[in-house]
Amino acid sequence: MKRPSPVQLVCVTVLSAASCFAQSGAVSPADLKAAEKPSSDSTWWKHAVVYEIYPRSFQDSNGDGVGDLNGITQRLDYLKDLGVDAIWIAPMYPSPQVDFGYDISDYENVDPQYGTLADMDRLIAEAKKRNIRVCLDMVLNHTSDKHAWFQQSASSRTDPKHDWYVWNEGKLATGPGATPYEKRFAHDGKVPINDWESGFGGSAWQWTPATEQFYYHKFYREQPDLNWRNPAVEKAMFASMQFWLDRGVAGFRLDAIPTLFEDPQLRDEPEAGGVNAQGDPNLKDVYTSNLPEVHGVIRRMRTMVSKYPGDRVLIGETYLPNTLELDKWYGSADKNELQLPMDMLVGFQGNHAKLDATKLRQYLVEVETQVHGSQPLLVFDNHDNVRSHDRYGDGEHDAAIDRLIAALLLTSRATALMYYGEELGMPTTIPTRVEDVKDPIGITGWPKEKGRDGERTPMQWDATTPQAGFSTNAKTWLPVPASYATINVKAEQSDPQSLLNWHKKLISMRRSLPALHDGGLVMVDTDNPDVLSFVRTAPAGAKPVLVCLNMSASPKTLHLDLSAAAVKGVEIRTLLTNDATLTPVHSVKDVTMPAYGSYIGELQ
Ligand code: GLC
């Protein structure tokens, strides 16, 4: 990754990817066996491809240069053709847009720049006609500071809503406990009570003269944290979720969900050494993230959501230190929390991580075996991180690497989460001048932290206009990258070898082949440091599928032994490969993988 993302910082300050790895538990042979079995569970989200849409950037229908809900509706046929089962729309609620929608001022409406409630109803109905479910983003940790709740809360210490947020009087700036860092945030002779930092830079405590207190904000100061120790907050938030469930949404992606609770003793976070891109000390984040109290809320939420018909789903934005922590988010053996907490270990291994077959094999085996048989959810791209194309690309084999990541995402047993433009290989386009930056952290952090605009540029539909079919307005909210001339939906639709068609083939195979749809997963050739290979075992009467992914820049000859997957024969039929030299392969004893090559074949 070219730069640290603030949201990853929240994870990375907990533990580095390397130490996450070291902390993971060992996998026993019995665990491995359990993952081998095919399953015939047809629950939709267990097989789904979920597609994240950043609504500002997908399709502008009214020419204001900003994407909107009607734009998404216009493009549903494209999504159907791609093969997605559900979309997750990043926040489209009324918002001052400080954090582009993640600062919500009304949970039960649509921001006028994105449309109306009627537009949302129409989008849900039109999507349903195409068998596409609509999931929304639910931001529970914080609201906008312009939300009526916060306005009331901040008006006085005696307001009935005061306790809906996290307030503290701070300590005397002249007192013995005040550190030089805390003194930077002094107001009226007071400094914040502890060293807690906003993930977006500076102290997480903001002084409010009307109450003579600081309020806590994990993210921007315009995003005050709700006080989840107050039951009224849970009640109000669940009611908002029900508002949308009643309108037919298929579920929610829960934003920053591990950060709901803070340490009641307000203890200082331990320092992790060094400073981050915003110039703040790196902290360990043990008192402001992943506190055990959150699980009670999630269990009650699951009970609430489960009362609705149609297998509504709860997806979590769960940056966690290791798979054992991830298991808790499923509810461990009880499986009564989130159906799909995101596994961020596989797809986001830190800013400079390159593809590493050994690490990926370990993480995949863990999520297959250490989550009590729950369903893994893999993701390589989102609106907070440099796109995988740039993180994992080496400048020489980018096309092959894009295909390899797609193959991994779409052929493992996991539910797959994609991000708009990933299917095209849209590159990250980071602003080159600070005056062009829209994401506030890119302004305060410039030039070390250039913000997240780069991964949020408009969808590249065609090359007919400089707006790439995204908008009719010459001025789009973020500029359309020059890459639109060749990297766009229209061009890729007509090129059989395009990344878009690669995705379509993978998604269609994942649907139609019993081994990819229902099969178990068995790692093979497990000592190979460069090539990740696994067999998707087959339900009775179907054929197993072998997947081989070369994660190195040089060709590798495989010596495959598939006995771990109970495959006796050696004959294979190529289903899909990015390299023509692999097309004639007919025996697993004769596979030489080109640099970053992907091979998928059906065992005979
Ligand atoms: C999540 C979102 C990110 C947002 C933050 C605060 O990490 O993905 O975009 O800035 O939460 O809501």
Describe this structure as you would to a colleague.
This protein is an alpha/beta fold and 604 residues long. It has 3 domains: 17-141 and 231-493, TIM Barrel (Alpha-Beta Barrel), CATH 3.20.20; 148-216, Oligo-1,6-glucosidase, Domain 2 (Oligo-1,6-glucosidase, domain 2, Alpha-Beta Complex); 521-603, Golgi alpha-mannosidase II (Immunoglobulin-like, Sandwich). It is 27% helix and 15% strand. It has 20 helices and 22 strands. An 8-stranded parallel beta sheet has the order 13-12-9-3-2-1-15-14. Strands 16-17-18-22-20 form a 5-stranded antiparallel beta sheet. Helix 12 links the parallel strand 12 and strand 13 (340-341). Helix 10 (231-246) packs parallel to helix 11 (294-306) and helix 16 (398-411) packs parallel to helix 19 (499-512). The protein is globular and about 75 Å long. Residues 7, 99, 102, 139, 219, 255-256, 317, 383-384 line the site of alpha-D-glucopyranose (GLC). Alpha-D-glucopyranose is lined by residues 7, 99, 102, 139, 219, 255-256, 317, 383-384.
